[in-house]
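Bit of a strange request maybe. I'm writing a small parser for structure token strings and I need a real example to test against, not something I typed by hand. Could someone generate the tokens for this chain?
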Amino acid sequence: MEKLSEILEKSLKRLDQGGRLTEHGVWPIWNDTVGATIARNAQPEKIRNGTLFIKVTSSTWMQQLQYMKEMIADKVNERLGKTVVKNIFFVVGKINYEEPDPTKEPITTPSPSIPVKNLDDVDLRTVSDPALRQSLQRLHHAVTRRQRP
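Reply from user aminoacidic:
Good idea to test on real output. This should exercise your parser:
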């Protein structure tokens, strides 16, 4: 009797003859491997034949990371447990990176049985600071939760 995980691992290895699944292991480990500062300014775009294409926010970041690309490749390969990234190529472009905030409480909507006025963008249109606007929305939500019967 074999474990299901062993059967799946064998099947995936058989299906993945070219090592493509291992290559795509770069994305989940990227932010932790390079750190928050680099992750805000450089994100993996694609990987082809051992070349990792990284999108960077500016030519300045491209230049800086050129000096670090061997170190980055070594760290990524170390985390993956095998040599996946053999070369890194940088390209300037727009990055959609949202840094995770562990202190941020997710905003949930109250149950539909309790009528609560929603605090929407119309109510907060005079607040220009997005962080303040979000804090006010969280505060409103916390107050309405405490007012439940």
